[in-house]
Amino acid sequence: MLSQKTRYAIRAMQHLADNFGQGPVQLAQIAEAQNIPAKFLTTILSELTRFGIVDSQRGKDGGYWLAVPPIDITYGDLIRIMRGSLALVPCASRFAHEKCKNCLEEGDCRTRALMLEVRDRTADLLDGVRLSDKIELVPAQADEEA
């Protein structure tokens, strides 16, 4: 599952993408529109600024904006920035690989083999969807069956 922090970051970035090229967006506006606690949002936007995909300006006319066009940012990028990896288990991660504790040798672990496949398919999907892409909404009832 994605952490609350990652989900907030995605929503904040979607908001900034919707306002791309229109000047700075105030933190309070993002927080209210996306129902994100302002204090937590400050931390998230600071982290995204350090990664170079968000920029900011202080002051009365200040705010936040995308430092990179939304067409150049994928959902895979965002999740990797916030989580460090798309993998569900550490032994299947490309960028944050760790041997699992109390597990079989990696070459003998069928769970790892499955999780590598899950990681690759997830990466293919998330790296193929850009922040600029329109995402079709799914009615709430469809979620309840999964």
TrEMBL record:
The keyword Nucleus does not apply. Coiled coil: none annotated. It comes from Novosphingobium clariflavum. Keywords: DNA-binding. The keyword DNA-binding applies. Gene3D superfamilies: Winged helix-like DNA-binding domain superfamily/Winged helix DNA-binding domain (1.10.10.10). This is RrF2 family transcriptional regulator. InterPro entries: TR_Rrf2-type_CS, Tscrpt_reg_Rrf2, WH-like_DNA-bd_sf, WH_DNA-bd_sf.
